[in-house]
């Protein structure tokens, strides 16, 4: 009985607190929240589409109550600018759930760190050390090696009889490039051999990544209603075991690198070497180094492969655009050599195709949520301290007020008007903007451009037998990152001589 009374009193206190909040502040409009759960059960699985639909009814800034946590979503360029530029600093914290809290050791990494001295220091390491043009250039051979390996396996597979009709599943090839590229760049390791077989350490790495996703997904409703957490204790043991397993693997790799550095002259360009040699200069703890390495993996792996898959789907849907890119290749690069990243600056139409893909299919359509560290006003509404703020960059990039025929895939729009996509133009924000803008933006752009250009220079892509281009499923999977709901399949027909389809392995 007494438990019942305590619970009833707690519920009453929370409901009245929420009510007072709503009366005290002029909050943005939105769907009517239910007691305790708020709008949690009204949100459709593909969140950014649901928020977009609500914005059509309530306007470009809306309140969504997820349990007792206020989430504000903005959906036009003007409000995005207020969030990411004018009130940038007050909105630069992160919301951590129990899983991200545990894995980031209370924000000791970069992605989940709140804005403050630790964040500023680690961000400086990224800007001045990890993502400099010099380092990106020195890691170029890794990217080029991986895309040529992809071309070789597409070439080997495309002539198998079943693949001439059913087509190849592009995600498999793009996923391998992204996996090998990011593990080599972060850990200096290619876990996969030339036959595509993953070694023991690589299998452990993959198991850790998928276990992390599983643990993140296992969180209960109490995640959104902090005062209910005592009733749903998180599986602390599982979190701790996962953390220990991740640290063990990362420490083993770090030790291998330390030994290798002692036995050779100077450090290599991989992030693990860079961070270990910069440890003292920037006073980085081991938790921060491990956290940063895993940030790069989680933020950099899926995003590039997802964008390239969407972009290829658009190419298969639009033979006109595909042909135009290939004509540009033939004019600039020719048919008797493999292209390189150095060719990109002479391929303006290709760059427009990449940009148009990022516009229509940003892989993180709601970016990562920001959290307010002070009361702030956006669009004339109050955003109380502690609210989460999301920019629906997917909706912003489809806003007919700033884009002509926004739903049409038309790369030429960027030949007519040059629009920046790295945070300077608030109509196009696949990487966010402001102090938390993606530090890996240029790397991501290079990787997506590289994957697309090699696939399109080497092969003509057509839909599987019996499927019309307009029948390709262009709907999205739910999730923080937006995969295509149905992996795209396509038939590849080589257009360059076969001797240009061989991988030239590069050990780095
Ligand atoms: C297609 C490629 C990519 C896209 C579209 C993308 C997009 C984004 C977005 C939208 C954010 C959140 C910005 C914000 O909170 O305002 C972000 C953050 C981040 N990204 Fe990327 N990203 C990509 C590739 C990469 C790569 C390749 C890396 C590193 C190897 C990377 C590392 C990070 C990190 C560390 C953060 C957290 C920054 C912070 O909290 O200060 N990203 N990214």
Name its key features.
50% helix; 18 helices; 4-stranded mixed β-sheet; binds protoporphyrin IX containing FE; identical protein binding; transmembrane; alpha+beta; 3-stranded antiparallel β-sheet; Cytochrome p450; 9 strands; 508 residues; transmembrane helix; Cytochrome P450 98A3; globular
Write up this protein.
This protein has one domain: Cytochrome p450, CATH 1.10.630.10. It is 50% helix and 7% strand. It is built from 18 helices and 9 strands. The chain has a 4-stranded mixed β-sheet. Helix 7 packs parallel to helix 18. Protoporphyrin IX containing FE (HEM) binds next to helix 13 and helix 18.
Total number of strands: 9
Number of helices: 18
Order of helices and strands: HHEEHHHHHHEHHHHHHHEEEEHHHEE
Mean residue pLDDT? 92
CATH architecture identity: Orthogonal Bundle
Organism: Eutrema salsugineum
Membrane topology: Single-pass membrane protein
InterPro entries: Cyt_P450, Cyt_P450_CS, Cyt_P450_E_grp-I, Cyt_P450_sf
Pfam families: p450
Short description:
The protein has 508 residues and is α+β, with helices and mostly antiparallel strands. It is 50% helix and 7% strand.
Topology:
Blueprint: H1 2-24, H2 47-58, E1 61-66, E2 69-74, H3 77-86, H4 98-103, H5 117-130, H6 133-138, H7 140-158, H8 161-165, E3 168-169, H9 170-187, H10 200-217, H11 236-263, H12 271-282, H13 286-317, H14 319-332, H15 348-360, E4 370-371, E5 376-378, E6 381-383, E7 388-391, H16 393-396, H17 413-416, H18 441-458, E8 459-462, E9 489-494
Parallel strand pairs: 2-7
Antiparallel strand pairs: 1-2, 3-9, 4-7, 5-6, 8-9
The structure holds protoporphyrin IX containing FE.
Residues 110-111, 123, 295-296, 299-300, 303-304, 307, 363-364, 367-368, 430-432, 436-440, 443-444, 448 line the site of protoporphyrin IX containing FE (HEM).
Keywords: Heme, Iron, Membrane, Metal-binding, Monooxygenase, Oxidoreductase, Transmembrane, Transmembrane helix
Organism: Eutrema salsugineum (Saltwater cress)
Subcellular location: Membrane
């Amino acid at each position: 009985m007494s438990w019942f009374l305590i619970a009833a009193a707690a519920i009453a206190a929370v409901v009245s607190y929420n009510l007072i909040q709503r009366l005290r502040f002029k909050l943005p409009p939105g769907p009517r929240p239910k007691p305790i759960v708020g709008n949690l059960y009204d949100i459709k699985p593909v969140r950014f589409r649901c928020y977009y639909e609500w914005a059509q009814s309530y306007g470009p800034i809306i309140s969504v109550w997820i349990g007792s946590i206020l989430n504000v979503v903005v959906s036009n360029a003007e409000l995005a600018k207020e969030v990411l530029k004018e009130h940038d600093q007050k909105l630069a914290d992160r919301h951590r759930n129990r899983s991200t809290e545990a894995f980031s050791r209370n924000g000791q990494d970069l992605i989940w760190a709140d804005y403050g001295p630790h964040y500023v220091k680690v961000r400086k390491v990224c800007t001045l050390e990890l993502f400099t043009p010099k380092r990106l250039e020195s890691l170029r051979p890794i990217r080029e090696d991986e895309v040529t390996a992809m071309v070789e396996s597409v070439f080997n597979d495309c002539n198998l009889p079943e693949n001439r009709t059913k087509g190849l599943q592009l995600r498999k090839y793009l996923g391998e490039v992204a996996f090998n590229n990011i593990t080599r760049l972060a850990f200096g390791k290619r876990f996969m051999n030339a036959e595509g077989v993953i070694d023991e350490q690589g299998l452990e790495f993959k198991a850790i990544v998928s276990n992390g996703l599983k643990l993140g997904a296992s969180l209960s409703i109490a995640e959104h209603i902090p005062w209910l957490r005592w009733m749903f204790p998180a599986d602390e043991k599982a979190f701790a075991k996962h953390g220990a397993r991740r640290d063990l693997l990362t420490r083993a790799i770090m030790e291998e690198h330390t030994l290798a550095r002692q036995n050779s002259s100077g450090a290599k360009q991989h992030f693990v070497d860079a961070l270990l040699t910069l440890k003292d200069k920037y006073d980085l703890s081991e938790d921060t180094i491990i956290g940063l390495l895993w940030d790069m993996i989680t933020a950099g792996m899926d995003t590039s492969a997802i964008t390239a898959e969407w972009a290829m789907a658009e190419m298969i849907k639009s033979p006109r655009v595909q042909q135009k890119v290939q004509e540009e290749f033939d004019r600039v690069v020719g048919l008797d050599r493999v292209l390189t990243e150095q060719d990109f600056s002479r391929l303006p139409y290709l760059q427009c195709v990449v940009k148009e893909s990022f516009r229509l299919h940003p892989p993180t359509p709601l970016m990562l949520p920001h959290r307010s560290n002070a009361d702030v006003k956006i669009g004339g509404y109050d955003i109380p301290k502690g609210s989460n703020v999301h920019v629906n960059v997917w909706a912003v990039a489809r806003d007919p007020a700033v884009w002509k025929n926004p739903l049409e895939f038309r790369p030429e729009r960027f030949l007519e008007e040059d629009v920046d996509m790295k945070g300077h133009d608030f109509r196009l924000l696949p990487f966010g903007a402001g102090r938390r803008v993606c530090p890996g933006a240029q790397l991501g752009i290079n990787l997506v451009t590289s994957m697309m250009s090699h696939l399109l220079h080497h092969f003509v892509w057509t839909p599987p037998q019996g499927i019309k281009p307009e029948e390709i499923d262009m709907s999205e999977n739910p999730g923080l990152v937006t995969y295509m709901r149905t992996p795209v399949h396509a038939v590849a027909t080589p257009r360059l001589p076969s001797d240009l389809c061989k991988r030239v392995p590069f050990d780095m």
